[in-house]
Amino acid sequence: MEIVLTIINTIFFVSTWYFLGRSSIYNKLLKDYRDILRIAIEQEKLLEKAIEICGAQDGMKTAKEKEIENGR
Question: How far is residue 56 CA from its own chain's centroid?
């Protein structure tokens, strides 16, 4: 009887260790995913600002070119 209880206890210990290990790995992966997603969103915002700036510069160039064409 003691052997059976020892085997059952060992099975419960190993299964608890296994599931706690898996859950900690999943929690770490979720945290890393959130960080990566936050960084990607920030990069997207910076890219949109850069596109707006470049668009404004392109608009200024075309306006200057039109002024030169019309003025001269």
Answer: 29
Residue located via tokens 């608890």: 16
Cα(7)–Cα(1) distance, integer angstroms: 10
| pLDDT tens, N- to C-terminus, the chain (72 residues) | 889 999 999 999 999 999 898 899 999 999 999 999 999 999 999 988 887 877 767 666 776 777 677 775
Helix runs in the chain, H state only: 2-71
pTM reported for the whole predicted model: 0.56
Q: How far apart are CA 22 and CA 37, in angstroms?
A: 22
